[in-house]
Every structure is written in C-alpha cells, then in structure tokens.
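One such given next:

>
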Amino acid sequence: MNDIILGAKHILDLNGFDHMLFLIALAAAFDLSKVWRMILLATAFTVGHSLTLFLAGLDVVRASRDWVEFLIPVSIVIMSIAATLGISLANKNSKYSKATYALTVFFGLIHGLGFSSFFRIAVDRGEGIVMPLLKFNLGVEIGQIIILLITLSLFSLGRSLGVTQRSQQIFIGGMTMGLSAIMAIEKLPL
C-alpha cells in the first residue's frame, strides 16, 4: 500500500509538478467527452515510465541526473508546441494518433528516469522489483486520473462557456510551453 501512495504522491506532488504539466499539455485538445482516450494516452506514458523504472531497478540503465532533469521539461515543451500548432491529439482518426502514443511512451521513459533511484533502493532492501513497481505504477495511474478528471472538467467548463478547442490548445500550449521552457533553462546542464 505504501508504494501505491508513493506513486500517487509522485504525480500529485506540487514540488515536482512536471508530471502534471506534461499531462495538461497532453490534454490541451481534450475535454470530458474524450476522457477515455486521454486515460489511454496517460497509460501509454505510464508504460514508458514503468519500463524505465524496471530497467533502472535492475541497474540495467542509468542516466545523468542533470540530463534527465533537463530532458523532462524539454518533453513538456515538445508536447506544448504540438498543442500550440494545433496538432489534435484528441482525434483518434488523426494522422498523428499512432505517433502520439509512441511519443508519449518515449517521454514516459524519460520521466521514469527522474524517479528511478526509488527502485534501486527497493531492490537494495531485498524487496524485489516487480511488486513495488506494480504498486507504484498503480498509484501513478490513480494520480494521473485525478489530475485528468480535474483538468478535463475545467476544460469542459471552458467549452460550455464558449471556449473553442483551438483556443484551448493555444492557451494551454502557450502556458505549458512558457513554464516548461523556464524549467528547461533552469535545468540546462552546463
């Protein structure tokens, strides 16, 4: 149960709002009418996150913390640019649909490196990796769903007040791009 709570806290922690920002950028074209499609995209992110955590827990992969801390906001910038350009990730028939899932998994790999030390510690304590990883990622999914339900509810409220999907994409893309660009500049490895 502690690993589930740790996973949810990892996503919901305001001190590390990078995951929230990524989800918000990813959801820029969505509202509650597309909640299941958005949850599938978030799950694709978790698949990448899980794979990196698993490999890091087995000590198969290690990465420079400085570069990981820089690449996380860069991934948000990229998603924000897609939103600002009007690339609709909400349309399942979009030519970007498959690429979006692949890119989301890839960015999940990068974000997973940011928390990989937890699993090295779990393995060092003799707990193994599979159960802590499954529990942690269940918590991540719960946290992501909470964020998405709040975000998509706000986006749906905006839509009911006349905000168009395109206006939402521009606003959310611009906001997340600005915040993540600042984070990337601050984390630039020198």
